[in-house]
Amino acid sequence: MNPLHSFTHPPRVVTVALNPALDQTIEVAGLQPGAVNRALRMRIDAGGKAINVASCLSDSGVHAAVAGQLGRSNAVLFEELFQRKKIANHCCYLDGLTRVNTKLADTVTGETTDLNMPGPEFTPGAAADLLNQVLERLERLAEHVDWIVLSGSLPPGIPVNAYATIITRMQAAGIPVLLDTSGAPLKAALATGPRMIKPNRHELAELLNRPLDSLASLVAAGREVLHSSPAPEWAVVSLGSDGALFLTREQTLHAHPLPVAVTSTVGAGDAMVAGLIAARLEDRSLIETAQLATAFSAAKLTRRGPHLPPLAEVRALAGHVTVSVID
């Protein structure tokens, strides 16, 4: 176990990192599969979706904490990020390595190819122990926390209902949960009615088991999820270069993307999650939420690693986001 890092201010948001990663980004000028490629440069960032969300929240002035698991053998980069950004570390330390994901960033095409590892494999006993420890830490933090964010994949051996279990316990304690995952964990967790979900178009299509190849089909799918039982109150569907849909039961908005110089697409969806939480903490309207979350995502595109530019720049970007109302 690690000594918990506490800072002067208690966290308002806890992100749960059950499968964090070190992101190794290798830049190549014109990637050629099957050939010898000479790298231009490499960097390694503490990452994984939940870590990225906490990092962007911290950049925006929101006090955040991370609960979950870290491999003891390569935890130092995570610890340095937490210390530098004053993110409270409530992770369980396990023997071995945190997984390493590799991103091949082609400087010619602007495309990034991800090679993501599955994560450490848990026995049933170890999985139950980790989940119990995470729940205990979340309950200790519950007095001050406004939101819980469940983000990312589950490592092998962690049951698919792990997120569902956390949502049930946390929302019973009155703490809303934002869920950003995919596949079987998303389907299982939806049955517990998280307050907000943020699938991308491919994850939503997989959830509903049908192609969603038009804006109209995506809107219909989002509305279908919002009218299930139990149902989230908000659904945000990220569409990559097509922007994002923001849906409640009363309103549907399409936020259009901002033209920015793209440095890296890695973590743009996680920055959007951070923007959603930041907007909900400020009790913003759906339109204002769409603008701020889109600005977070666009701002992240201009940076490598899980970082945002200064908050004043992000808020200025939000003022330029165009939002269309969909009947």
Question: Can you tag this structure with a few keywords?
Answer:
327 residues, alpha/beta, UDP-N-acetylmuramoyl-L-alanine:D-glutamate ligase, ten-stranded mixed sheet, four-stranded mixed sheet, 10 helices, 14 strands, 35% helix, globular
Helical fraction equals 25-40%
How confident is the prediction overall: mean pLDDT? 94
Q: In which order are the strands of the major sheet placed?
A: 5-4-1-8-9-10-11-12-13-14
Give the overall silhouette: globular
The number of distinct β-strands equals 14
What is the element layout, followed by pairings?
Blueprint: E1 13-17, E2 21-28, E3 39-47, H1 49-59, E4 64-71, H2 76-85, E5 88-94, E6 100-106, E7 112-115, H3 124-141, E8 147-151, H4 162-172, E9 177-180, H5 183-190, E10 196-197, H6 201-208, H7 215-226, E11 234-238, E12 244-247, E13 252-255, H8 268-281, H9 286-301, H10 311-318, E14 323-325
Parallel strand pairs: 1-4, 1-8, 2-6, 4-5, 8-9, 9-10, 10-11
Antiparallel strand pairs: 2-3, 6-7, 11-12, 12-13, 13-14
Helix pairs in contact: 1-8, 3-4, 4-5, 8-9, 9-10
